[in-house]
Amino acid sequence: MAAFPACLNSAVLVLFSCDLCLVRANRPPSPVNVTVTQLKANSATVSWDVPEGDIIIGYAISQQRQDGQMQRFIREVNTTNRACVLWDLAEDADYIIQVQSIGLYGESQASKRVHFRTLKETDRLPSNSSNQGDIMVEGLDTERQLQTGEMVIILAVLLMWAGEDGGGAGPISGASGRL
């Protein structure tokens, strides 16, 4: 009679082991080459690669301050982005991050831990702008000025072209003979 429970225990153990193997086989691979770039006093960009072959529907990022005062878990589903900007970081603080792939049948194992330290506010890169704000914001402001300038030029050309004859036929159609 004692042999039956022993066989049952062995059978359950074998089935459980097979089930675990199947679950692991369906999990996506862990991200590799996790790197931290664009490091600033209060933000950083994390990027990674994922081995090809499996369907990835998103990523999960675990961010932990090394002193243990803060932990954040970011989960992005329905994305193929392989980078994420981490905001609201403490100045001159140590962080540890790990990235996981999210597949159709679950999440991968976490990537290797990556350690980084945010910059001090005084470690910012010098700026030529009178606005001493964020470098990325300054770049966007310059880009907006270019777009606005382009729109003014296009509008001025269109007004000159439309007002040349009053009828809209201008130098493009050759009606006036002038350029």
UniProtKB/TrEMBL annotation:
It is found in: Membrane; Secreted. It comes from the Eukaryota. It is a single-pass membrane protein. CDD domains: FN3. GO terms for cellular component: extracellular region; plasma membrane. SMART domains: FN3. Residues 1-25 form the signal peptide. The keyword Transcription does not apply. InterPro entries: FN3_dom, FN3_sf, FNDC_type_III_4/5, Ig-like_fold. The keyword Secreted applies. PROSITE patterns: FN3. One of its GO terms (biological process) is negative regulation of inflammatory response. Its main location: membrane. Residues 28-121 form the Fibronectin type-III domain. Keywords: Glycoprotein, Membrane, Secreted, Signal, Transmembrane, Transmembrane helix. This is Fibronectin type III domain containing 4. It comes from Pelusios castaneus (West African mud turtle).
